[in-house]
Amino acid sequence: MSAVMSNVSIRDLEIQLGSNTIIESLDLEVEPGEFLVLLGPSGCGKSTLLHSIAGLIDVSGGSIEIGGQDMTWADPKDRGIALVFQSYALYPTMNVERNLSFGLRIAGTPKAEIERRVTRASEMLQLGPLLKRRPAQLSGGQRQRVAIGRAIVREADVFLFDEPLSNLDAKLRTELRRELKQLHKRLGATMIYVTHDQVEAMTLATRMAVMRGGVIQQIGTPAEVYAHPNNLFVATFLGSPGMNLLKGTLQREAGTLRFRNNHIDLDVSAYPFRQAPLENQPCVLGVRPEDVLIDPSFQRRGTVSLVEPMGNHRVIWLDYHGAQIASIAQDSATAAVDEITGFSIDSKRISLFDEPAGDRL
Hints:
The protein is of the alpha+beta class. It has two domains: 8-237, Rossmann fold (3-Layer(aba) Sandwich), CATH 3.40.50; 245-354, CATH 2.40.50.140. Helix content is 23%, strand content 35%. The chain has helices at residues 46-54, 96-106, 111-124, 140-152, 170-187, 198-204, 222-227, 232-237; strands at residues 8-17, 20-30, 35-39, 61-66, 69-70, 81-84, 158-162, 190-195, 207-212, 215-220, 244-253, 256-260, 265-267, 281-287, 292-294, 301-309, 313-320, 323-330, 340-345, 350-354. The longest helix has 18 residues, at 170-187. InterPro entries: AAA+_ATPase, ABC_transporter-like_ATP-bd, ABC_transporter-like_CS, ABC_transpr_MalK-like, ABC_transpr_MalK/UgpC-like, Mo/tungstate-bd_C_term_dom, NA-bd_OB-fold, OB_MalK-like.
């Protein structure tokens, strides 16, 4: 079973709920067969955007095309989509098999076709041994697999996922993330997935769109967005811990361009600026914790204020003249609380942002 791959094209979308504008002038292109993740904090408009694609929310302006067809005002049933909600929403009196087939039976799908689709979906999601059980006899992860299976049997053009794993515990989320990734590979379908969990976004997405206040802040592959954030919001929202930020100015000296504050002097001449910086321009230097290297031999010194063991690595927090700087180090690295140690910043892997606007320089 393979799904039809359809693109989703959103142009100048506006959504108002009462007197509040939730989304304004939003453009988004979802390519056929890609796994696009909408990522952002609660209230940023990502679920509202997903529901507008599904036809569950009326738009105030703009257009939504699915597979080249204008679906802005089409009924949900006519959009060729399948939606998986955060809640399982299974019928408690029906067994798994009948839950999977319910929509097909209502639509009058031939019995042989229903059997083919249910069998295939249950094989893909490892639901075969559970087909005769009712939802009360299933674990949370099994129930969510049934909810996903109910969408798969639709053989839709586009699959929409609205935070489907948020009700599960950490172990089940990890397992179902892996299953969803494999499912996308097998189906080759277009999938749009909403989450506030950056780990889900980074592991599932072929591309991700980071949202804030109804506006897409950045869209790109997880690696691109993580390494080259467009602004300070993206820089701090992604990563655990988030990017370290240090305020300073850009100064030219003897043919070099340097980032300077009261305690740091760093050559940033090789930085790929989007446009030429101004002399003495206020800016913020950002560096990921894994690019802060700790070694007692380094000249720049900080005091270890906290050590967080994370299994195969540790997060070491340094107090550097009142600024808290996080470093991700292998668990073999030695550092103890209150110890004074050396650290360095990998100048090839930094980000620079305008201050106070916060846009990437």
